Amino acid sequence: MNPWQTVWAPNVNFPWSGSVAQRVEPTANWFFDSIDANAGDARIERKAFEKASYGRQIGWLTEIVIALASESKTMDRGENSPLHKLETVKAEIDKIKLQEASSAASDIEDKLQWLKKNDAAEYTLLAKKLISILQENE
Description:
The chain is an all-alpha fold. It contains 6 helices and no strands. The protein has 2 domains: about 35-75, no CATH class; about 80-138.
Protein backbone atom coordinates (compact mmCIF):
# COMPACT_ATOMS: atom_id res chain seq x y z
CA MET A 1 0.00 0.00 0.00
CA ASN A 2 1.30 3.41 -0.86
CA PRO A 3 1.77 5.83 2.07
CA TRP A 4 -0.60 8.42 0.61
CA GLN A 5 -3.44 5.84 0.48
CA THR A 6 -3.59 5.53 4.29
CA VAL A 7 -4.64 9.18 4.54
CA TRP A 8 -7.66 8.49 2.35
CA ALA A 9 -8.58 5.11 3.84
CA PRO A 10 -11.79 5.45 5.89
CA ASN A 11 -11.93 3.97 9.37
CA VAL A 12 -15.17 1.97 9.47
CA ASN A 13 -16.27 0.04 12.54
CA PHE A 14 -19.13 -2.35 12.10
CA PRO A 15 -21.10 -3.54 15.13
CA TRP A 16 -18.94 -5.68 17.44
CA SER A 17 -15.84 -4.87 15.37
CA GLY A 18 -14.42 -2.32 17.80
CA SER A 19 -13.42 -2.62 21.39
CA VAL A 20 -16.13 -4.28 23.46
CA ALA A 21 -14.31 -4.10 26.77
CA GLN A 22 -16.68 -3.08 29.52
CA ARG A 23 -16.16 -2.79 33.23
CA VAL A 24 -18.85 -4.82 34.92
CA GLU A 25 -18.63 -4.55 38.65
CA PRO A 26 -21.55 -5.19 40.95
CA THR A 27 -22.01 -2.53 43.57
CA ALA A 28 -24.43 -2.16 46.41
CA ASN A 29 -23.77 1.57 46.85
CA TRP A 30 -26.47 2.66 44.42
CA PHE A 31 -28.70 3.73 47.27
CA PHE A 32 -26.07 5.73 49.11
CA ASP A 33 -24.62 7.15 45.90
CA SER A 34 -27.95 8.84 45.29
CA ILE A 35 -27.62 10.83 48.51
CA ASP A 36 -26.33 14.31 47.82
CA ALA A 37 -22.69 14.64 48.89
CA ASN A 38 -23.57 17.83 50.75
CA ALA A 39 -26.35 16.09 52.70
CA GLY A 40 -24.02 14.58 55.27
CA ASP A 41 -21.30 12.03 55.83
CA ALA A 42 -21.91 8.94 53.66
CA ARG A 43 -20.16 6.66 56.16
CA ILE A 44 -22.43 7.84 58.96
CA GLU A 45 -25.51 7.46 56.74
CA ARG A 46 -24.49 3.91 55.86
CA LYS A 47 -23.91 2.97 59.51
CA ALA A 48 -27.22 4.55 60.56
CA PHE A 49 -29.00 2.66 57.79
CA GLU A 50 -27.47 -0.61 59.05
CA LYS A 51 -29.00 0.07 62.49
CA ALA A 52 -32.46 0.93 61.17
CA SER A 53 -33.57 1.38 57.58
CA TYR A 54 -35.11 4.67 56.50
CA GLY A 55 -38.49 2.94 56.25
CA ARG A 56 -38.25 1.73 59.84
CA GLN A 57 -37.16 5.18 61.05
CA ILE A 58 -40.03 6.85 59.21
CA GLY A 59 -42.42 4.24 60.61
CA TRP A 60 -41.37 5.09 64.18
CA LEU A 61 -41.74 8.80 63.49
CA THR A 62 -45.17 8.21 61.97
CA GLU A 63 -46.32 6.34 65.08
CA ILE A 64 -45.03 9.14 67.34
CA VAL A 65 -46.67 11.88 65.27
CA ILE A 66 -50.03 10.06 65.17
CA ALA A 67 -49.91 9.41 68.93
CA LEU A 68 -49.05 13.03 69.75
CA ALA A 69 -51.55 14.45 67.28
CA SER A 70 -54.29 12.17 68.62
CA GLU A 71 -53.81 13.74 72.07
CA SER A 72 -54.11 17.25 70.67
CA LYS A 73 -57.45 18.99 71.15
CA THR A 74 -56.79 21.57 68.43
CA MET A 75 -55.69 19.19 65.65
CA ASP A 76 -57.89 19.23 62.54
CA ARG A 77 -59.27 15.73 61.96
CA GLY A 78 -61.11 16.29 58.67
CA GLU A 79 -60.69 14.09 55.60
CA ASN A 80 -58.21 16.50 54.04
CA SER A 81 -56.20 17.02 57.22
CA PRO A 82 -52.56 15.93 57.27
CA LEU A 83 -53.28 13.71 60.28
CA HIS A 84 -56.03 11.84 58.42
CA LYS A 85 -53.78 11.44 55.36
CA LEU A 86 -50.94 10.11 57.53
CA GLU A 87 -53.25 7.68 59.32
CA THR A 88 -54.62 6.49 55.97
CA VAL A 89 -51.15 5.89 54.52
CA LYS A 90 -50.05 4.09 57.68
CA ALA A 91 -53.12 1.83 57.50
CA GLU A 92 -52.38 1.05 53.83
CA ILE A 93 -48.75 0.24 54.63
CA ASP A 94 -49.83 -2.00 57.54
CA LYS A 95 -52.20 -3.80 55.15
CA ILE A 96 -49.35 -4.33 52.64
CA LYS A 97 -47.16 -5.77 55.42
CA LEU A 98 -49.91 -8.22 56.45
CA GLN A 99 -50.43 -9.29 52.82
CA GLU A 100 -46.68 -9.87 52.38
CA ALA A 101 -46.47 -11.88 55.61
CA SER A 102 -49.42 -14.01 54.54
CA SER A 103 -47.88 -14.51 51.10
CA ALA A 104 -44.52 -15.48 52.63
CA ALA A 105 -46.21 -17.98 54.95
CA SER A 106 -48.08 -19.48 52.01
CA ASP A 107 -44.84 -19.72 49.99
CA ILE A 108 -43.06 -21.45 52.88
CA GLU A 109 -45.91 -23.92 53.26
CA ASP A 110 -45.89 -24.68 49.52
CA LYS A 111 -42.12 -25.22 49.54
CA LEU A 112 -42.33 -27.50 52.57
CA GLN A 113 -45.00 -29.59 50.85
CA TRP A 114 -42.83 -29.78 47.73
CA LEU A 115 -39.80 -30.81 49.80
CA LYS A 116 -41.81 -33.44 51.68
CA LYS A 117 -42.95 -34.91 48.36
CA ASN A 118 -39.58 -34.78 46.56
CA ASP A 119 -36.91 -35.27 49.26
CA ALA A 120 -38.19 -36.89 52.45
CA ALA A 121 -34.74 -37.03 54.09
CA GLU A 122 -34.10 -33.32 53.63
CA TYR A 123 -37.66 -32.59 54.76
CA THR A 124 -37.09 -34.54 58.00
CA LEU A 125 -33.85 -32.63 58.73
CA LEU A 126 -35.52 -29.31 58.05
CA ALA A 127 -38.54 -30.24 60.17
CA LYS A 128 -36.25 -30.92 63.14
CA LYS A 129 -34.52 -27.55 62.68
CA LEU A 130 -37.83 -25.73 62.38
CA ILE A 131 -39.25 -27.41 65.48
CA SER A 132 -36.23 -26.34 67.54
CA ILE A 133 -36.51 -22.76 66.19
CA LEU A 134 -40.22 -22.61 66.96
CA GLN A 135 -39.67 -23.94 70.49
CA GLU A 136 -37.03 -21.26 71.16
CA ASN A 137 -39.56 -18.50 70.46
CA GLU A 138 -42.23 -19.82 72.84
